[in-house]
């Protein structure tokens, strides 16, 4: 085709042929295409705002008066209402875009269209640099520090005239520098986060399969152009707006991201609605294919797609605070409130007392500086940096363990998870199935024994036994790669684990190859397996026999009544779903199928239960002959009427046998479950498998402790078996602790779950070991919400499309890297390799919270309490202020910052996962115990030692404490400014050195310093950070230029070494406290431990 297009509005008047349709008699049925595709990109961006999900409603009423000038969303609605691709036929759509349905675009065409239309990508949102810069500067404590700097400038001039103090100017400049440094750090963090998210997107594939130059080609989604024919399969995101030109009967799309409608929409060839968002012959970019397959004609890409147009309207996204952010905000509010109260108290005392009684003691500029000092001293300026660094460090560590976090905020949520709901297949098991057992009626076989029986039995028995492998081959969505023959172990199979295992089973038991059996049948309709119906169905017609084939293709038997034109319906699925649809069963030695009586049904169920109890996944295979006259002569195979017809024909089936499949447990699962349960996390299984199979796997994994004592739904329904009613408080306790009664195990199906009352759900949620079996996606979602409503912080793991709703609703959704991109997009984290990495994620999630508590505990004694004491003594006792205002700022923003940041790099303590999860409702980041440790223990010791050292220094220089107490400025002449500056520097360095002891003590909450020493291999940042803190203090105190500006001074050498003994004593005292906590966990000291 030589013609090309320059824009989407030009119609090429060239007739194209329709896609090939197979004609069977008078029945026109479109053959289903076999598609393969790589996973598409996971986009961790925020979901569209809710208001844009009503776009379809606006389109219904988009016919505005001619003169209306709509802007914003109205303009977008008008653009969408002008689209008519759903109105035109498939032929006309192909003509518009000058493309052949058989060969697709030519390479030259595609290149020209790429140059004209550009890549299939959404434009980057506006950077809003001014808003970002303002956020970097004024965010966090920036606004407060900037205001404090302005006050200091005012205190210097004009309020300080005629003798402005240089120290006030220096303080103002230092605060301004801190604001700039915090802004630079915020900007760096913003850039780093964007870079991390870009790298995550780059690690996940974003390819699609298109038809170009007559061949299927894998291309990046960004390379699509209008006119491309793109293949769509289950679990794939639609890469562009496409007009469907070929669909399977079960093609379904989840359009909730655009319309808010959670019910999947079927795919059709013809228009079903005038609204382009509602019609079923259009697949929109960003929507998810949840079942079936199809072929679509790309007509819009990038910003021109419906998704792109709506995204343009999303100028801002609402951001809610995470649990940790709320905790930090609460802590800052408490500290700021205390600082404000103290500042107000000082102002009141100054105005009501000091100004009247001692008018020359504190002037207005000094008062302002004191107020600023109190405010800055109380607020831990290093905390915001420590929070971000801690989260980023943990996320980086998790990435080394092949755990990808879509956002830093999700890391802290892991620490409080107390309920873990895990899928079974592909998560707990290897998803590498093989058929272990087979049964024909009540005769059971291993694969090898069934093969031997097929080779040695009588022809009539062989005719019945071959039904099972033959139907296994026909009703199968997997396929061998290539056409070469050979042992099944050397032939690669394309398909899911279940179908692949059954196909290998069929190939192993079929003389020659199962490909020859499948070649005798041509599918005219297929319904793939899904988690709701729990079965797969194929409707096939026989291929006319040739010289090399017999007249009656397998699995047809001598007792079948099969006329020319009849079709074969084969079904494979869960026994509890299909047995009710069956009326007969094939028996090995019978000349015709037996009636499926109650006794016969019980025999089959007994085999199913026996295999399920051994951890087998049991599937029943059945078939029936569909007479030609049961189908209307003319019917649209894509209509809902045809779907209803097929559902009606899926009855009166003949059971040909059962297969028992084994999906081996992953080798690391038992240990992972043991660690999680030891950490106080209740580990549940939520699966679509049979209850007995799920319990068996759960028992092997250690999720069920005693399989013989498992409760069932009847134990909930029978109120007489419940001796004590479980209160809602007990249910919440169950979600917070593993030591709760009752601790029984229970297995319950999704159908049984729907029959429970709220009171019975309360009882169910109090169990410690739960297996949810035969669950649908909606029921999985209900389970998550039920646990959350009862105080649970829920993590969900899964890998399939059916897991996506629960993954999205969970507090922390965790997808497997090998799973569908639907699951990966819905999740908050992705485990790229081993499931055991979840243990590392849980441990480091708790570590974030622990390390932030340590950071706060380190910052408060010197940076808050010990700085406040000199101000209070100066105001209340009239003694000179033993710590200058500039030195307070230096402690907060210089000497304490690096050691505080080193706390964020602390590794997990031993026993971190032996503690119960954090109760997000009750346990606070800064609780009473932590404040008692910070102020009542560390703060008092540091303040007393620093105060004693500074007053001792004055006494040695001839100024005893009695000569300055209650003097309010009337100090002896011996107390010169230089001597006061020395005493203040002594106080300063005593705090700096004693913070070494605080640092080494606070590094661990319970472990001894000998168990977790500050060595290079444990935390290489601790010792350098402590040394740097001292060097920073020396720099500002010993460089002569700072003596006048910052009013600092040199100090005698002994004032460096004596505080070291104080720091050592502080370590000894805290080590004693930790020893009591470890050895006497029921003691008062242990109860008071932070």
Automatic annotation (TrEMBL):
PROSITE patterns: ATPASE_E1_E2. The chain crosses the membrane at residues 133-156, 168-188, 328-351, 856-879, 926-952, 979-1000, 1021-1039, 1051-1069. One of its GO terms (molecular function) is ATP hydrolysis activity. InterPro entries: ATPase_P-typ_cation-transptr_C, ATPase_P-typ_cation-transptr_N, ATPase_P-typ_cyto_dom_N, ATPase_P-typ_P_site, ATPase_P-typ_TM_dom_sf, ATPase_P-typ_transduc_dom_A_sf, ATPase_P-type_domA, Cation_transp_ATPase_P-type. The keyword ATP-binding applies. It is found in: Cell membrane. Residues 8-17 have a biased composition (Polar residues). GO terms for biological process: intracellular potassium ion homeostasis; intracellular sodium ion homeostasis; potassium ion import across plasma membrane; proton transmembrane transport; sodium ion export across plasma membrane. It comes from the Eukaryota. PANTHER family: CATION TRANSPORTING ATPASE, SODIUM/POTASSIUM-TRANSPORTING ATPASE SUBUNIT ALPHA. This is Sodium-potassium ATPase. Keywords: ATP-binding, Cell membrane, Membrane, Nucleotide-binding, Translocase, Transmembrane, Transmembrane helix. The keyword Transmembrane applies. Residues 84-157 form the Cation-transporting P-type ATPase N-terminal domain. Its main location: membrane. It holds the Pfam family E1-E2_ATPase.
């Amino acid at each position: 085709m030589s013609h090309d297009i320059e824009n989407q509005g030009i119609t090429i008047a060239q007739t194209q042929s329709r896609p090939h349709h197979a004609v069977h008699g008078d029945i026109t049925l479109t053959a289903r295409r076999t598609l393969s595709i790589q996973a598409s990109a996971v986009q961790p961006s925020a979901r569209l705002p809710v208001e844009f999900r009503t776009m379809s409603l606006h389109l219904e009423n988009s016919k505005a008066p001619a003169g209306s000038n709509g802007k914003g969303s109205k303009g977008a609605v008008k653009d969408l209402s002008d689209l008519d691709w759903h109105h035109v036929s498939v032929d006309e759509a192909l003509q518009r875009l000058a493309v052949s349905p058989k060969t697709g675009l030519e390479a030259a065409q595609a290149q020209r269209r790429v140059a004209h239309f550009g890549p299939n990508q959404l434009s980057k949102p506006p950077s809003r640099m001014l808003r970002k810069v303002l956020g970097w500067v004024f965010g966090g404590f920036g606004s407060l520090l900037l205001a404090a700097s302005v006050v200091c400038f005012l205190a210097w001039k004009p309020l300080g005239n005629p003798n402005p103090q240089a120290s006030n100017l220096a303080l103002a400049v230092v605060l301004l520098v801190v604001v700039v440094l915090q802004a630079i750090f915020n900007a760096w963090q913003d850039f780093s986060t964007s870079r991390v998210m870009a790298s995550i997107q780059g690690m996940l594939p974003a390819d699609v399969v298109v038809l170009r130059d007559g061949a299927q080609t894998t291309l990046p989604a960004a390379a699509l152009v209008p006119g491309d024919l793109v293949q769509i399969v289950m679990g794939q995101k639609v890469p562009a707006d496409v007009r469907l030109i070929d669909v399977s009967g079960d093609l379904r799309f989840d359009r909730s991201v655009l319309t808010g409608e959670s019910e999947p929409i079927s795919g059709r060839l013809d228009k079903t609605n005038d609204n382009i968002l509602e019609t079923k012959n259009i697949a929109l970019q960003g929507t998810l294919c949840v079942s079936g397959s199809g072929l679509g004609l790309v007509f819009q890409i990038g910003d021109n797609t419906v998704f792109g147009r709506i995204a343009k309207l999303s100028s801002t996204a609402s951001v809610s605070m995470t649990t940790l952010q709320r905790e930090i905000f609460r802590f800052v509010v408490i500290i700021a409130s205390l600082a404000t109260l103290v500042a107000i108290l000082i102002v009141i005392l100054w105005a009501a007392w000091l100004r009247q009684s001692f008018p020359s003691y504190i002037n207005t500029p000094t008062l302002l500086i004191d107020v600023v000092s109190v405010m800055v001293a109380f607020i831990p300026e290093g905390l915001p940096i420590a929070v971000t660094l801690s989260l980023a460090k943990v996320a980086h560590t998790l990435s080394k363990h092949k755990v990808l976090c879509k956002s830093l905020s999700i890391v802290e949520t892991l620490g409080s998870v107390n309920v873990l709901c895990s899928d079974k297949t592909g998560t707990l098991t290897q998803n590498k199935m093989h058929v272990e057992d087979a049964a024909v009626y009540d005769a059971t076989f291993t694969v090898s024994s069934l093969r031997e029986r097929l080779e040695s039995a009588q022809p009539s028995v062989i005719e019945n036994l071959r039904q099972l492998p033959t139907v296994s081959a026909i009703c199968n969505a997997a396929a061998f790669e290539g056409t070469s023959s050979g042992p099944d172990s050397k032939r690669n199979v394309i398909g899911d684990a279940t179908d692949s295992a059954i196909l290998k089973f069929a190939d192993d038991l079929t003389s020659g190859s199962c490909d020859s059996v499948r070649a005798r049948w041509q599918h005219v309709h297929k319904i793939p397996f899904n988690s709701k119906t729990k079965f797969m169905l194929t409707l096939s017609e026989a291929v006319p026999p040739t010289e090399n084939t017999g007249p009656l293709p397998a699995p047809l038997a001598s007792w079948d009544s099969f006329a020319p034109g009849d079709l074969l319906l084969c079904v494979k699925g869960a026994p509890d779903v299909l047995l009710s649809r069956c009326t007969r069963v094939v028996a090995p030695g019978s000349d015709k199928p037996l009636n499926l009586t109650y006794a016969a049904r019980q025999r089959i169920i007994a085999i199913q239960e026996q295999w399920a109890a051994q951890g087998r996944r049991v599937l029943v295979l059945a078939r029936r002959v569909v007479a030609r006259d049961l189908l209307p002569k003319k019917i649209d195979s894509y209509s809902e009427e045809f779907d209803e017809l097929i559902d009606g024909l899926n009855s009166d089936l003949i059971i040909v046998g059962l297969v028992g499949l084994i999906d081996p447990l992953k080798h690391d699962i038992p240990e992972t479950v043991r660690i999680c349960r030891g950490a106080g996390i209740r580990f549940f299984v939520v699966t679509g498998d049979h209850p007995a199979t799920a319990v068996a796997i759960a028992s092997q994994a250690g999720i069920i402790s005693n399989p013989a004592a498992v409760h069932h739904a009847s134990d909930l329904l029978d109120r007489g078996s419940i001796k004590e009613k479980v209160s809602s408080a007990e249910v919440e306790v169950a979600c917070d602790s593993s030591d709760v009664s009752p601790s029984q195990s229970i297995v319950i199906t999704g159908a049984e779950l729907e029959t429970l009352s709220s009171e019975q759900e309360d009882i169910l949620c109090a169990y410690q070991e739960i297996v949810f079996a035969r669950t649908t996606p909606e029921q999985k979602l209900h389970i998550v919400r039920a646990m959350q409503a009862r105080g649970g912080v829920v993590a969900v793991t899964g890998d399939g499309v059916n897991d996506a709703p629960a993954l999205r609703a969970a507090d922390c959704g965790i997808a497997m890297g090998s799973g569908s991109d639907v699951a990966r997009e819905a999740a908050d984290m992705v485990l790229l390799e081993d499931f055991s990495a979840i243990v590392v994620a849980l441990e480091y999630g708790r570590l974030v919270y622990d390390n932030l508590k340590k950071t706060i505990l380190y910052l408060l004694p010197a940076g808050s309490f010990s700085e406040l004491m000199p101000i209070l003594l100066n105001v209340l006792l009239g003694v000179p202020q033993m710590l200058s205002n500039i030195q307070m700022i230096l402690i907060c923003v210089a000497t304490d910052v690096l050691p505080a940041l080193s706390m964020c790099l602390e590794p997990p303590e031993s026993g971190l996962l032996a503690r119960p999860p954090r109760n997000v409702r009750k346990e606070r980041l800064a609780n009473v115990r932590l404040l008692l440790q910070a102020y009542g223990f560390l703060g008092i010791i540091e303040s007393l030692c620093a105060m004693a050292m500074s007053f001792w220094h004055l006494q040695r220089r001839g100024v005893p404490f009695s000569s300055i107490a209650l003097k309010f400025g009337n100090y002896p002449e011996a107390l010169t400014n230089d001597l006061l500056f020395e005493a203040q520097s002594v106080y300063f360095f005593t705090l700096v050195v004693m913070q070494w002891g605080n640092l080494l003590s606070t590094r661990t909450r319970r472990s001894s310093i000998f168990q977790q020493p500050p060595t290079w291999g444990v935390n290489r940042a601790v010792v350098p950070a402590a040394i740097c803190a001292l060097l920073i203090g020396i720099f500002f105190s010993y460089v002569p230029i700072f003596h006048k500006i910052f009013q600092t001074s040199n100090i005698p050498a002994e004032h460096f070494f004596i505080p070291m003994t104080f720091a050592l004593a502080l370590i000894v005292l805290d080590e004693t406290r930790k020893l009591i906590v470890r050895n006497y966990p029921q003691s008062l000291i242990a109860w008071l431990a932070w």
